[in-house]
Amino acid sequence: MTKPFIIVAAAGVVWTISMALAQAPERPAAGPAGPPGDSVRPGSPQIVTTQGNSEWLASKLKGTAVLGSDNQKVGDIVDILLDKAGQVRALIVGVGGVLGVGAKEVAIELSEFRETPASDGSKAQLKVPMTKEQLSQAPNFKPLPSPPATTGSAPSGSPPPGSPSR
């Protein structure tokens, strides 16, 4: 249960940092105007001090209910797919299952989502132009496998030092 949260939180941090880096103007070299390190000032474009009305925090996006075109709940946001430029490419929705167990994950392009207020006045929901049945038939999202961890040992094709050769 904590692994998806960590992934979403990490994705949010990566997205935030990459967005800040992508929008930061080039800093001029230090010259007569002042010493290096003097370029970041409160209120400068590199520092974001508040969240805007049209912005979402990744930590709050996870678990957001997703409604289908028929206004029925189709699932919840379980992850975010970012491109190398830090732009959100898709939101990954857990469809079906019970309390997230047995749910399939479907990646839906960000442009397909529309924000809609919750009927009970609580947290906003997202709506997609598909039904639960359509999403249940959609292909599963397949993330890249994690690279194998390195242990510092010799490659598997070479014998350990001191062992007899074949």
Descriptive notes:
This protein is an alpha+beta fold and 166 residues long. The protein has a domain at 2-24 and 57-137: Roll (SH3 type barrels), CATH 2.30.30.240. The protein contains three helices and six strands, in the order ααββββββα. It has helices at residues 2-23, 58-61, 132-137; strands at residues 65-67, 73-82, 88-95, 104-109, 114-116, 125-127. It has a six-stranded mixed beta sheet with strand order 4-3-2-1-6-5. Strand 1 (65-67) and strand 2 (73-82) form a beta hairpin. The protein is flat. The relative contact order is 0.14. Mean pLDDT is 75; it is low at 1-10 and 13-37.
How far apart are the termini?
Answer: 47 Å
Strand order of the main beta sheet, please?
A: 4-3-2-1-6-5
CATH H-level homologous superfamily name of the domain at 2-24 and 57-137: PRC-barrel domain
> What global shape is seen?
flat
Strand segment tally: 6
The number of helical elements comes to: 3
| Share of helical residues | 10-25%
Task: Provide the succession of SSEs.
Answer: HHEEEEEEH
The chain-level mean pLDDT equals 75
Structural class: alpha+beta
CATH class of the domain at 2-24 and 57-137: Mainly Beta
Oligomer category: single chain
The amount of beta strand, in percent, is: 15-25%
For the biggest sheet, the summary is: 6 strands, mixed
What is the CATH architecture annotation of the domain at 2-24 and 57-137?
Roll
Q: Could you name the ranges where pLDDT drops below 50 across 5 or more consecutive residues? A: 1-10, 13-37
Radius of gyration: 23 Å
